[in-house]
Amino acid sequence: MHLAGFGDLIVCLDDYENAQAISAAAGRASRKINVLVEVNVGLNRCGVDGLLVETKELAERRGYPVEIASAGGSNTSSLTGVYPGITDVQVGSYVTMDIHNKHYGLEFEQAITVLASVISRPEKHRAVTDAGKKSLSTDEGLPICLTPGITVSKLNEEHGHLGVEVGHALRAGDKIEIVPSHGCTTIPLYDRYIAIRNDHVESVLEIHAWN
Length: 211
Hints:
Elements: E1 10-13, H1 16-28, E2 34-37, E3 39-40, E4 48-49, H2 52-61, E5 70-71, H3 77-80, E6 88-89, H4 99-102, E7 114-123, E8 126-129, E9 144-145, E10 150-155, E11 160-164, E12 175-179, H5 183-186, E13 192-197, E14 200-206
Parallel strand pairs: 1-2, 3-4, 5-6
Antiparallel strand pairs: 7-8, 7-12, 8-11, 9-12, 10-11, 13-14
């Protein structure tokens, strides 16, 4: 209720008792809270059972105007963005992109990498970086390295293991750019973006929150 005083807050719910609790709290705080009814469209997370657009139309036929029907994300934007009845598409990851999104064929360029330092080249075919699982999420698989001839083979907590083509000039102290497999779970590991344009640092952007 306190947060609602700083902007147009909308909350999602799928439970009648939860709606009653929110309404009672809003009344005590002399506030009005907008809500969205969350619908389970097949992902089996939260949400009431029911087809989204059909549920919206049913509510409207009963006299309840539905201003927002929100669905989909970056990976399905080409479908949900043109689906009749949908008013809002929950896109976001297209801004930075990652390996996960590339698998869906999105026509956006990769814009986010993690800069790692090579800390050891113990063998001709192997190197180690300072970027492990605490620097790169692996929920969508291993990340990839932008440098030709180098692959990320394994991640420990603090170390990243690289496969290196024999003859590659990589050595301890070098910097390499690594593309996260999933940006949404990698970005919250950091406090800021270093924005680069044409190989020059253009801005430093603080990461205050990530959804």
